[in-house]
Design brief:
It is built from 15 helices and 16 strands. By secondary structure, it is an alpha+beta fold. The chain has 3 domains: 288 residues, no CATH class; 113 residues, no CATH class; 63 residues, Arc Repressor Mutant, subunit A (Orthogonal Bundle), CATH 1.10.10. A 9-stranded mixed sheet has the order 2-6-7-10-1-11-12-13-14. A 3-stranded antiparallel sheet has the order 5-4-15, with no helix packed on it. A hairpin with a 4-residue loop joins β13 and β14. The longest helix is centred in the middle third of the chain and has 20 residues. The model has no long low-confidence stretch (mean pLDDT 91). Bound molecules: zinc ion and manganese (II) ion.
């Protein structure tokens, strides 16, 4: 399922909260709503009470323009907001203030793109448009959405600024969709306008079609961890239908992350059902060339440039640099490590192989783990100082990630220091030799059997014997046997 397949077409509609804003999009309520008493971070504006008037958050426009520049978009010079009308319990006004690309409307920016890198190959994903809109409130269900006996509504999230990004159907596998979301997140995080580690800060809807067939929309994908799963399920479902000769229905399906299936929600509304019309309570936005240039001059380093810098300053291969900048947290972690210990290639190797593999296999984010740059560097120093072998480091790394214990402490507590004591090793080698008489005989003429004996010694010491000393001593002992015979 992870292979790119030209007959699979995936387009994404990504909603990201501009989490660095202090207040909501159209009122002065705090944007810091997480963990707050339900319906406590609200005011007449974000509750949609009659007579209340929205006022646009200027900083939100600046952030959106930054995103537009980072996505290589064409920025609209003059635009206004629209009302998207629909009735839903989480939408207190019965309409959402958003932007629209028809009826004289233009979104904030159009015609952009981002490159995603997979296995050293670059692929362009076109971005049709981005715009600003307000987040609805949050519905809380008991268990699965289609089985909950009731729905609770919390308006704290209502009015939070969202950036909506719509792509062309340029992705050909669930894996590519995941990589795109990661890239999007990394760019927004580098801009300093978004923190993807916050629960619900990035939500994604996907439309997917197979072999030029009907498009199905999958809603409620809560993170890029889920996107691969949800889309893989949906491909399997649609393939199953097609194989049985059943037509795929045009509909909206809901991703149930608990049961890991998509369920039919409703047949898709037509656009006219939303009765879009211009929002009369907000003035048009005008963005001058000077303003856009000013924002451009404040742009920080973005992932693609950072990747090039990682290659030129630290001598990393393109692939490694690309993986590291795929997440701001990962790239920051790497640079912190290098500051502490100037061995970029070693640090990158440990991050790329064992650290990332562990996180990926356990579906953990770096921020969710307990490892810090100090701890990773301490582990690498223990290897360089000959206290532990690389093998032992591989064994303690998961413990550092899970417990956050200092590597030196783990090594001491579990007695994992390298055995470099000749006396101790010599006794162990004697035992290995007496337990493996045939191998000893073979080892006098066959190099392979020598390795076998060393392997047995490593096994006996649980990998703690100093590998080069162990090899040296085994060979010495074989030599003395040879002399005697
Ligand atoms: Zn408010
Ligand atoms: Mn939207």
């Amino acid at each position: 399922m992870s292979k790119a397949d030209g007959t699979i077409k995936i387009g994404l509609e990504v909603h990201t909260q501009l989490t660095s804003l202090k207040s909501k999009l159209f009122c002065s309520c705090s944007s810091d709503y997480r963990g707050k008493e339900p319906n406590s971070v609200v005011c007449p504006v974000c509750l949609g009470l009659p007579g209340s008037l929205p006022v646009l958050n200027k900083k939100a426009v600046e952030y959106a323009v930054m995103a537009a520049l980072a996505f290589n978009c064409k920025i609209s010079k003059r635009m206004f907001f629209f009302r998207k009308n629909y009735y839903y319990p989480d939408l207190p006004k019965n309409f959402q203030i958003t932007q629209y690309d028809k009826a004289g409307g233009v979104p904030l920016a159009t015609n952009g793109y981002l490159y995603i890198g997979e296995q050293g190959k670059r692929k362009k994903i076109k971005i049709s448009r981005i715009h600003l809109e307000e987040d609805p409130g949050r519905l809380v269900h008991l268990g699965p959405i289609d089985q909950s006996p009731y729905t609770l509504v919390d308006y704290n999230r209502s009015g939070i600024a969202l950036l909506e990004t719509v792509t062309e159907p340029d992705m050909n596998s669930p894996r590519e969709a995941r990589v795109f979301l990661q890239k999007l997140r990394s760019v927004l995080e580098h801009l300093g306008i978004f923190d993807g580690s916050l629960e619900g800060a990035m939500r994604c809807d996907a439309n997917i079609s197979l072999a030029g067939g009907t498009r199905v929309e999958v809603k409620n994908i809560s993170s890029f961890k889920e996107v691969e799963r949800a889309l893989s399920f949906e491909i399997m479902r649609q393939k199953g239908l097609l194989e049985r000769g059943v037509a795929v229905k045009r509909e909206t399906r809901h991703w149930d992350a608990t049961r890991r299936i998509t369920v039919s929600l409703r047949t898709k509304e037509e656009e006219q059902d939303y009765r879009y019309f211009p929002e009369p309570d907000l003035v048009p936005i005008e963005l001058s060339e000077e303003y856009i240039n000013k924002v451009r001059s404040m742009m920080p380093e973005l992932p693609d440039d950072r990747m090039k810098r990682f290659m030129s300053s630290y001598g990393l291969p393109r692939y490694d640099a690309g993986v590291l900048v795929s997440s701001k947290a990962l790239a920051d972690f790497f640079e912190e490590c290098v500051k502490l210990y100037n061995k970029p290639k070693d640090i990158s190797n440990w991050m790329m192989s064992d650290l990332l593999r562990y996180l990926y296999e356990n579906n953990l984010e770096l921020q969710e783990s307990k490892i810090t740059p100090e701890k990773l560097v301490e582990m690498i120093r223990l290897i360089d100082e000959d206290v532990i072998s690389g093998k032992i480091a591989k064994r303690i790394l998961p413990k550092i990630i899970l417990t956050g214990k200092p590597p030196r402490k783990i090594v001491e507590e579990e007695g994992m220091m390298k055995i470099t004591d000749r006396q101790v090793l010599s006794e162990l080698i004697d035992r290995v030799f007496s337990e493996n008489p045939k191998a000893v005989k073979d080892a006098l003429v066959d190099e392979k059997a020598v390795h076998y004996l060393i392997g047995q010694l490593m096994k006996k010491t649980e990998g703690k014997a100093d590998p080069s000393l162990a090899a040296k001593m085994v060979n010495e002992k074989l030599h003395s046997i040879k002399k005697k015979t």
